[in-house]
Amino acid sequence: METLIGYAISPTALWIVLAIVFGAWLVVSWILSYHWHTYTKGSHAIRRVMVIYFGVSLVIFITEALLIISIS
Amino acid sequence: MADYLVDLGENEHIVAEVRRHMFVFYTRITGVVFLIFLPLVFTAPIVQFLNGRFLETGLSAQAGGGAFFTFLYLLWFLVLFVVFFFQWTDYYLDVWVLTTERIFDVEQRGAFNRQISVFRLEQIQDVTVEVSGVLATFLKYGDIHIHTAGEAKDFIIRDAADPLYIKKVIMEEHGKVIRARTDQGVDVSE
User: Fold this and answer.
1) B55 at the A interface (CB within 8 A)?
2) How distant, in Å, are the alpha carbons of A12, B94, B134 from that of A45?
């Protein structure tokens, strides 16, 4: 059990988790972007939404990577 | 304007774009916002537990527990962040477009289901506004029931912002279309 917990909180496992989450995020972001581009192109509201969405997501992923490095 | 959403005819212009009142969206995302803040209530015990696990594995308790909790919380936040934007997209893509000739009912049902209904303004027989409840009264939102001629189902614009104004606009455009058709000698009695 301690070995399992030790592996689960190891940097390797965290990188794997982050990679899986990033992959899933890419898929759902593509779906959202498709809708935003196809049905709302030209909308000022959508431009602001896209900036917020991708900006915050980028900050989250960078922070996650830095956190894993700090745990390493 | 919503000219990217609907195909307009020659000389047809968009008069109004109607969406649900923002308060309706806020009530939908209340659960998401609650879940975003929920883990923060249990920060101390969770970090303490994680610090213990880090000690057991030989990793530093000082740097491990808090950082790991932050890592997990950011993942949790990201998931809810995406859910929030899916909810917002569903809200934003539900729209009723009033043009000088028709009304479009564009309804986004989930990520892969979209329904667009159209009817001509001259088919309108009557328009009823329903504002029900204390919040709806003060925030000025309600349902607009549009009864059309023939066997077509009634259109309902649900939780529309400023429904009385929208009704006024619909009736004005309806009147213009009827007058134009009458001037052209077209029978609009049906």
Assistant:
1) no
2) 40, 14, 29
